[in-house]
Amino acid sequence: MSNETVTYSLETVLTRIEGKIDSLQRDVNQKFDKIDERLTKVEIGQSELKGEIKALGFKVEGIDKRLEKVENEQSVLVKSVSDLQGFRGLILPLIVGGISAGIGAIITVSIRFSLLSGNP
After folding, report:
1. CA-CA distances (angstroms) from residue 20 to 8, 15, 23?
2. 32: CB partners within 8 A, 6+ apart
3. Could you count the other beta carbons within 10 Å of the beta carbon of residue 54?
4. Is 118 helix (H, G, I), strand (E, B) or coil?
5. Closest Cα to residue 87, out of 79, 118, 37?
6. 120 with 114: CB under 8 angstroms?
7. Is there a contact between 68 and 60 (Cβ–Cβ < 8 Å)?
8. How far apart, in whole angstroms, are the C-alpha atoms of residue 107 and residue 59?
9. pTM
10. Per-residue pLDDT reduced to its tens digit, 108-120
11. Could you read off the pLDDT of 20-31 as tens digits, one per residue?
């Protein structure tokens, strides 16, 4: 092994160290700038998402009101159909009653007519 001594001036060593520190500082600053840009984009995206979520909330509220209206109309329609089915159940007895009354009236008139005309 040889013991060679290398001599540098203090100014040269400090200048090199200072240059490396400056270079590292630039790299760190660039990375922080990129992180800051990305953070700004994230904040903008977050703000846009908040607006979209709020708009969706209004849409859901509108859909909820429309659904409630449809459910109310459905309830009314079900009741109306039920009432119509009940009325349909009454139609046949009314017709039978009307026919029976008509037949009864015809029989009564013919009996009275035959009694009045004297033909037993």
Report:
1. 17, 9, 5
2. none
3. 10
4. coil
5. 79
6. yes
7. no
8. 71
9. 0.47
10. 888 887 777 765 5
11. 999 999 999 999
Q: Which helix (H) or strand (E) holds 87?
A: helix 10-117
Q: Which tokens belong to 14?
A: 């400090």
Place of tokens 């090199």: 16
Query: Encoding tokens for residue 60?
Result: 């859901």
Q: How far is CA 48 from the centre of its chain?
A: 20
pLDDT tens per residue, range 31-54? 999 999 999 999 999 999 999 999
Residue 118, Ramachandran bin (φ over 0: left; ψ between -120 and 50: alpha; else beta):
left
Give 2's DSSP letter. Answer: -
Residue whose pair of structure tokens reads 């994230």 in the numeric block: 42
The DSSP letter of residue 3 is -
